[in-house]
Amino acid sequence: MVGAILATMFATASALTGDANDDNQVDISDVNAVINMMLGKTEMVANCDVNGDGVIDISDVNAVINLMLGKGGDEIIGIREGSATQLFEVELKSLYEELDANAIHPTVAAMGDYVVVCLGDGRTPVYVNKATGEKVGEIALGEAEPTGCVSSDENGNLVIANFADGQGGNFCLWKTADVTAEPVKILEAPNAWGITLGDYVQVIGNLDEDAVIVATFGGLYAQHIARWMVTGGVVNPEPQVVEVGGSSVQQIWSRDNNFNVSQRTSDPADGYFMGQYASGVDNFYFIDGATNQIAGTLLPPPGDMSGWKYANCYTCTFNKVNYTVLFSIGFWPNWGLPGALYLFNTDTVDYFDGVNTVANAPGLVATCLVGDADFDVTPYAADGRVADVKLTPTKDGKYLDLVYTSNTHLMVGCVEFDCVAQ
């Protein structure tokens, strides 16, 4: 019973946090009352869920004790420092019998206890155990076409996109909350722009409530995004087509250079992040939401020779903090160069100042190297080198999952962060 009581079952009581007996003070009687709630002996009271995770457990008991002692303020906001745990990292070859690194465009999503991998070549996406990386099964596709990519939202919904070649076909998105349930089509939009859609799709927010869907264009002079707003769980079929960065962004035309963007929040006015691989300007950018021009920049570390691929970023809100992750692939694994994941607190973007690097920025909260040196990466992708990364909170709100994949290191993995006091 401990930790299994939902917040929706809580009774109403005093507005004072931790005041379980409604006497407008927090003392030892409240500690005892919260223990009884935790054990299911008494009715739950909402303001005794001190850490706001939807359950009453021992962490709330400790928090009430701290409030009683006047300590307060020990609530962990965001992730706990030093809590990064590598849950798994496995070779893509362990999931598919035949694999040509130069012919695939792997993307990744997280939903519940699973990580979903899509190769973008029409084969059915597979889902693996989030804790071990062991293949569990294949996604129930129904009418969905896995020729583009997969993505996921903050609520664990899986999105499947087709690849629309810009020759008059439709760009479609399908959604499901269950790996065994056939996805439902939520968007069908004519791709009349003459350039491709479907390589990358990012969903920021909750598709069952409010969110923004962003798809980056590919092909010759691709410097645009298509953006669809979701309100009350309904997708507005009319896209906003935006040119990103103006003349400061190099026009790019291949998957090897394909740029990628991620909204800072589900509100486009809050701006967005952009990465690209382009000689001399392969920085990590913040784009102003009103002007769609570059408003800030983080540089690569001096002397880095890993082969920057700043085309993969993703953003989400976890435990009251906005986070953005950047995936730098590391182009030459045969030289022993790993990829790198950079996780930033983006409640503020003042440190995107054109001086700080991704490795020393004040907002950097974690760096994780990826790509096991023992993996068989031959032949690795010689061109069309791509990767993908997602951030997804767990359902209980206590953990943040960072999932990633790459056709260069030919792997998929998951790093987990927590907000649980130890």
Describe the model.
The protein has 422 residues and is mainly β. It has 2 domains: 7-68, Dockerin domain (Type 1 dockerin domain); 85-418, TolB, C-terminal domain (Neuraminidase), CATH 2.120.10. 5% of the residues lie in helices and 35% in strands. The chain has 2 helices and 25 strands. It has helices at residues 28-38, 58-68; strands at 85-91, 107-111, 114-118, 126-129, 135-138, 149-152, 158-161, 170-176, 184-190, 196-205, 211-218, 224-231, 234-235, 240-243, 260-263, 272-275, 284-287, 294-298, 313-318, 321-328, 339-345, 364-370, 387-393, 399-406, 411-418. The strands form 6 sheets. Strands 10, 11, 12, 13 and 14 form a 5-stranded antiparallel sheet that branches. The protein has a 4-stranded antiparallel sheet with strand order 1-25-24-23, with no helix packed on it. Strand 11 (211-218) and strand 12 (224-231) form a beta hairpin. Helix 1 (28-38) runs antiparallel to helix 2. The radius of gyration is 22 Å and the shape is globular. The two termini are 22 Å apart. The relative contact order is 0.13. The model is unreliable at 1-14 (pLDDT under 50).
